Amino acid sequence: MKRSARMKLLLMGSATLALTACDDTQEVTKAGVYDTVEQCLADGVYSEGYCRDAYKGATEQHAAVAPKYANVQECEADFGPGRCQVAPNGAVAVDGQQASGGGGSFFMPLMTGFLVGQLLNSGGRSYYGQPLYRPYQGTSGPGGAGGWGSYRTAQNVDVGARTGAVDVTRSTLQAPPARTTTISRGGFGARATSVGVASPGRSVSVGG
Amino acid sequence: MRRIAVPPRHDWTATAERHGFTFHTMYGAPYWVEDAAYAFTLREIEADLEAPSAELWAMCLEVVRRAVTDDEILASLAIPRDWWDAVAWSWRRRDRDVYARFDLAYGTGGPAKLLECNADTPTSVYEAAFFQWLWLEEARSRGLIPADADQFNTVQEALIDGFASLQPLWGPCAGPLLNRHTLHFASVRDNDEDHGTILYLRDCAHQAGLRTAVIAIEDIGVDATGRLTDLEDRPILALFKLYPWEWLVEEPFGVHLRGPHAPMVVEPAWKMVLSNKGLLVWLWRMFPGHPNLLPAAFAGTPDAATVGPRVAVKPLLSREGANVRLLSPDLPGGVLDEDGPYGAEGFVVQELHPLPVFDGRHHAVVGSWIAAGRACGIGVREDDGPVTKNLSRFVPHMIL
């Protein structure tokens, strides 16, 4: 036989609906919020290896994923006095500015804790750690009296104000690629427009 | 190779739409046609199409191997000089490619002849790989065609293998980290055919275990470090672009496809050597007289005059038969011109080889698919004229 014995589509056409229904990223699962490895160990839920790996993974991601600020004042306004550090070179601020070579630096909050949880993926079970940040509301803020807010992931997902066990969605546990800041769009596609590929109703494929 | 009348499936349009084939009718004319089918013998498939396609692919890779150390070849293909290093590096790094399509003139007796190679942005892949296969299975089971009819088509399997082969190259780390990388599929906005094509290829990548996303090529952004970004401001680390390399390199963001923050690109930059009609000239120079090649030369060179009285003049870079000129005493007025926006980079002259004409009007071209390095299937397109264009119709085939 010169043809495939079987074939399927998983995403295309009406099959898409079935797959969306199986999407498990919104499923709620158990995770842990800790300030230190010792706290994680004392809680007794995760083994020493998992606690240490999660902490290590969180610290490794921290610089890449933490929110970035153009000056220390703006950072401290969100995270509290003395709670910010200089971001490594090449970082991009939340407003899209980039640190210039002339000594300009960006600031990011200190990592105040980490999230540990179990993820199933094609490689089997694995534990991911994610850095957590804790905003500080000063006395002039909307919260009235000053105080620490909830722990938040780098994607600004609230995982509660207390350490210990917490319920989170699977998508919260998944470490996404570090977010960056787009400074420009539309730098591709001009030729397609000029040869009429992208004009609706009179389109020709760019393929051949 | 014969063209046989076949009863169409009464429900084929609903079947097409259920399987995401939204472009079965384009510009008010049918694109998918199943009131006929092309019939081949197993010998025709294996000896005349499959084996020569594998050989042609090996020859194409020889041309690339030579081109990356030969400035004369790169210059002759009008590849911008500041991209030569990127092309050469993509080859030396062994950047994986996924697929390509040869267009072959076959069916008039004699060996199949290479008309051109679509190695960068081949379309009609969904029709050939999936919908044609589905037609065969349903038409057999309903008794519309002989129950023992077969088809030369393992294209989808090969595409999945091709996408799977990208995996180990992603990033410096192995293991679970791979799961965090996403292959972004980009095509031009508002083009149903191209969008359908990337949705299909994305499905194959998904089946290969890759994480995937879709974006319009116009929506791609760039961050301050020169990394491409998607609409969620995530860096694009791997990009499948159904958009010609020769356009990408000329556009404002093209520079971000080389250098330290460049994503992995599929098809890779070395495909620029193959997605260029100048390939036909270099194949003929390196493998003169090969039975599956036609004489070809760059227009304006002394060699061009020796190609013959009947020639096709093709732009180095063009799509869908645009800007092709046929010169032959057999044509009315001696010339046939297809208009289009291409041709600024120069032309090649190729000996004109007749296409088989069925029922007095159907000019057929055999598209022979290479995926994961294998000759894995064919699809036949036919046109009312001798130049296969975007309005050509796709007709399924079977082995009888």
Automatic annotation (TrEMBL), chain A:
Which InterPro entries would you find in this protein's record? Biofilm_formation_YgiB (IPR009576)
Span of the signal peptide:
1-20
Q: Which domain of life is it from?
A: Bacteria
Q: Which Pfam families match?
A: DUF1190
Q: Which UniProt keywords apply?
A: Signal
Identification of the protein by name:
DUF1190 domain-containing protein
Organism from which the protein derives: Azospirillum oleiclasticum
From TrEMBL, chain B:
**Gene3D superfamilies the record matches:** 3.30.1490.330
Alphabetized, the UniProt keywords read: ATP-binding, Ligase, Magnesium, Metal-binding, Nucleotide-binding
Q: Does the keyword Ligase apply?
A: yes
Describe the location of the Glutathionylspermidine synthase pre-ATP-grasp-like domain by residue ranges. 12-399
* Name of this chain's protein: Glutathionylspermidine synthase family protein
